[in-house]
Structures are given as C-alpha cells and as structure tokens.
Amino acid sequence: MPKTTILVTAAGAPGAAALFRGLRENGERDVRLVGVDMSERSIGRHLADAFHLVPPGADPGYADAVLEIVEREGVDVVLPQSSHDLPHLAAARGRFPVPVLVAGTETVRRSNDKAETYELLQRIGVRGPEFRRVTGAAGVEAAAKELGYPDRPVCFKPVFSSGSRGFRILDPTVDRAHQLLYERPGAVAMRLEEAVELLPEDGVDLLVMELATGGERTIDGIADGKRIVLGHPKTREAMRAGLAMYFETLDDEGLMETANRIVEELEIEWFFNIQLVGDVVIEVNPRISTIVYQEDLDLPWLAIKRALGEISDEELAALQPRVRPGRIALRFFDQVEWDQ
Question: What is the pTM of this model?
Fold first, then answer.
C-alpha cells in the first residue's frame, strides 16, 4: 500500500510533536508527513518528512500557499492545528483536491467570535459566563463594575483570540509586589486601574466576563456536523505558560451531552475541543487540541481514515467503548540539536 501523505499546519504548535508521533505510530501503515509553518524555527522542520514556510494563517494568501504545497507534495489529507489557520482554509476547502479537516466558514466564524458563542450557549440552555461585549478602556471599566468588581474578581479577553492570548483576571486583591519578585513574567492577574491605563480607548473589541472557578475539563473528538461521532471528556490541569500539561480521561455522560448540543448548534465538522471551568463553558474550538493517545484509539489517525473513506461514522462510533477513563497524558518539554 502506498504511503499516505498528510499535511499538518502550524507545525510548531505545542501539540505538534505528539501529533506527528501519533500519526506515525498508527499501527497500520507508513505515512509521509508534510509540515508547514510561518516560522523556520518550527519543530516541524525536524520532525516532518518535508517542511515548507507559509504566510501567517490570517494572511489572504495563506490558503493558496497551502494549496500549492498540497499539489507539489502529493498530499492526501490536510490537518489544521491552529485557530488562525481555520478561516481561510474553511473558505477555500472546496478548491482543494483533497479533504481538509476543517468545518464550514460560518461554523469557524461563530466559534471564533466568543461573544456570539456565549449568546448561542444561552439560547440552547448551556451554562456560559455572564459577559459584556465592549470597546476600549472605558467599556472595560464600566462592564467590570456591572459584573461586581471590586467585590468579586472578573476577567476579560479579546472577542477574537486563540487560547489564553489576551486573557487577564481583574482582581483588586492581587499582590503586585509578589508577582514582581517571585512569579514568572506574564502573570494574568492585575487590578482594573492598571488594565484601564494600558488599554486603548477604542479599536479593540473585548469581552468582560464573570470569572468562572473550579476544575478545568474539555471534551474532544470528531463530529459530523450534527453529532459527536467519537470523543471523550478529560481534565485539563497543571498550567504552564498558558498551556495545560496534565490530562486525565473521564467517563461523564453529562459532559458528552453538553458537547453534543454545542456540536449540533454550531454544525461542527471534524475535530472539536470544548472547554469548561467548573460548570461554565468558556471556549469552543473547531480544531484538534491536545489528544490523549491510546494504542487502540488514535483519534488523529482515525480522522485521517474517515477523510479517506476507509472507515464509516458507524464504525467510528462503535469504537467509543475503547475510551479508557483514567488514562493520563503528561506533557513535557523536549529539544533537538543540529549544526548550522
């Protein structure tokens, strides 16, 4: 059987090394991996069989650059990793001669617009954060006070953002001296007065939200635009530099039902990641995220097989009992060396 060639975008993303390994260790056949990234320092340059520089995902020429590489490298499937890559790939997926594992343009737009996501959650009866959509420093200040600051901490982030970028907690009790002397740069907590001083007066759409508390959990899997085909919940723990480093799979029908309602409403296709803090849904990502791999359940590889027509949704759904609750994933830093 000829090798299957898979193009992985954002080949320098935090999950790229594990994803490359998971695709190679599929247990069925050899694969050829093509990594693309906007940075020549991407780890994908060293882990993939071929590597290409591309414009940033937000660049209007991004999809055309990826399409050219698909044709040049004989790619069979495109697997996007980054939220920034999704809008242009979704808009162009009909022009690709191979499957692109991305949802439709409207699904991507609605998911990336956090305000629209939160309004959607309210409509379908899923608990999301109380929020205000505002512009600029004055809007943040007014919204924070409406939501209870300074009697209780609140938080804010840009309406359009990825992961923890731009996320800050507004807490009047924060010890700034302790942050300065004993914490790593990049602490997320600050006082409202400090945020107002730094924020521009206009031009930036922001969400000011109640601060959800409790343990973090996500639901990950593969969807068909109407329902979850195969997936499971997991914990999200041990944060470092905005990234979770420890995960444990869960058996929780309630979380799966919540995720199904969101998948149906947003018409999510292919990979998804839905994140909760406590019982509050704070994030919906229509893309692959950190995977907890099992030797008998390799979600990325199963999605590739689905894209190639080698496994049906019914066959994928039949694999659900293989999910092992209590399976642990511990993420860590590694490095490569080479001479110039």
Answer: 0.91
